[in-house]
Amino acid sequence: MAFSWIAQIAVYAQTDTTYWRRSISSGLNLNQATFSNNWQAGGINSIAIGLFSNGKADYRRDRISWYNEIQLQYGLFRNKGQDTRKNLDRIFLDTKYGYSISSDWNTFASANFLSQFDRGFEYDVDSLPDNRRLISNFLAPGFLTFALGLEFKPVVDWFSVRFSPFAPASPFSPTRTCGRTQGRWFMAYR
């Protein structure tokens, strides 16, 4: 009976005609630095945590390719004498449809989305919680970019460069006040 089951799996594997390749990776990073008073070189006690999850799903068949990627990253740290702050915060989604015109060149249409999970602050020099200014929040700002162009891919799955003469980027925010001042994003709540 076990032999019959194994034979069925082998037959199924031979008839599988999927053109998809998928991968997922996730992780947790923990960091701690502790210095004693006897350590003359100095240092600040700190602790940090980081989470990440990355996923890819690629479709290839004949001259058509469809590439999809998601990156989710979030990290916090705390130095002695300061409040907890985020040091990593990223939501990134990318999709690209390509059509091969030669062995190294593809035409493509793509869209990507970039934002963050949590509130972000700008801190003054003394780093007290009362001396911080809100500059970002969940989806505020968010960036949506569309592109059309050519992709140079001399080595499949290792290196590629996208050339896009048309790539409009659209920043957006669901909050009342969000924008740029002196080249920096700002956000204010009423």
UniProtKB/TrEMBL annotation:
It comes from the Bacteria. It holds the Pfam family DUF3078. InterPro entries: DUF3078. This is DUF3078 domain-containing protein. It comes from Adhaeribacter rhizoryzae. The lineage of its organism: Bacteria, Pseudomonadati, Bacteroidota, Cytophagia, Cytophagales.
